[in-house]
Amino acid sequence: MYQRKIPEDLECGITLTGKVLGGKWKPCIIDSIRRGIRRPSELHKDISEASPRVINMQLRELLNHGIIDKKIHPGLPLKVEYSLTAVGESILCIIDAMDKWGAENRDHILQIMEETVK
């Protein structure tokens, strides 16, 4: 098992939040589930820029952190649905703040990105 050479400061709220939300698609996955997209195949369609493998990996991490729940409905084929836990609901204010900041700063960030590509 991998052991860090420099220990993480798990007393720092920013570090803990980063551990939970760190991952390119986790905020998008949380937002999709909040909007009612609950099945893995629906998430793959909603976040088409990400590979299904990456989405599944990040779903597993969110599940392990207690941000989402997974319900398996019996039958053939099995039906899997994800939902936000109470802790997952409490992180929505951060997702909303990220969305607001992105919308407010879109033009600036896109301009910087364009200049970087040139």
UniProtKB/TrEMBL annotation:
Pfam families: HxlR
UniProt keyword annotation of Thylakoid present: no
Alphabetic keyword roster: DNA-binding, Transcription, Transcription regulation
Record-level Gene Ontology MF annotations: DNA binding
Keyword flag Repeat: no
Domain HTH hxlR-type: 12-110
InterPro entries the UniProt entry points to: HTH_HxlR, WH-like_DNA-bd_sf, WH_DNA-bd_sf
PROSITE patterns according to UniProt: HTH_HXLR
Protein name (Swiss-Prot/TrEMBL): Transcriptional regulator
Lineage summary: Bacteria, Pseudomonadati, Bacteroidota, Flavobacteriia, Flavobacteriales
